Amino acid sequence: MANKVKVIITDEQTTVKVPKGLRMLIRRCCTAVLVMEKFDGDAEISVMLVDNEKIRQLNKKYRKTDKETDVLSFPLGVDGAYDVNLDTGSAQLGDIVISIEKAIEQAERYGHSLQREVGYLTVHSMLHLLGYDHENGGLDLLYMREKEEKALTELGLKRDGSYYMGE
Questions:
Q1: What distance in Å separates the CA atoms of residue 149 and residue 2, rounded to the nearest whole number?
Q2: What are phi and psi of 93, to 5 degrees?
């Protein structure tokens, strides 16, 4: 199980005032996934909150897709091997970039709270940082969705209806 989890959160946007408690929720989501996945050792994750324009730029640069998205994951590990921060001994799992603007839009569209949406995006990205992938659909997608729901249920953010996950 993860011993110490360091989540470095930076707010790089001025479009939205980040609600009180959202940073703690992000930290809880990161930790919940590591516990669920029985991650062994200390871990570091970087989370950046951005606006739609910034995430569009990153999506274009790194994924060659010139449109805004809700979240991007930049895993640093390969096959369960991670770089280690020499000062702390922590595994560096990678970076998560969340468009807080897009999260608000999606929470309204799906009829749930911003906390539920940000929780989902964080859990989803944490699974990517740990090597899960859904790009091929099929069983990989199903398996990832099951893991997401398990973590969110444990966090008290269970899905309260159906929602569509588009690209």
A1: 20
A2: -80, -35
Report the alpha-carbon distance of residue 140 to residue 69 in Å, rounded: 21
Cα separation, 27 vs 32, in Å, equals 9
Q: Are 63 and 35 in contact (CB under 8 A)?
A: no
Instruction: Select the more confidently predicted residue: 142 or 3.
Output: 142
C-alpha closest to that of 103 among 22, 5, 21: 22
Q: What is the pLDDT of residues 100-154, one digit of tens each?
A: 999 999 999 999 999 999 999 999 999 999 999 877 778 888 999 999 999 999 9
- As beta bridge partners, residue 97 has 48, 72
Please name each of the domains of the chain with its CATH number. 2-154 (3.40.390.30)
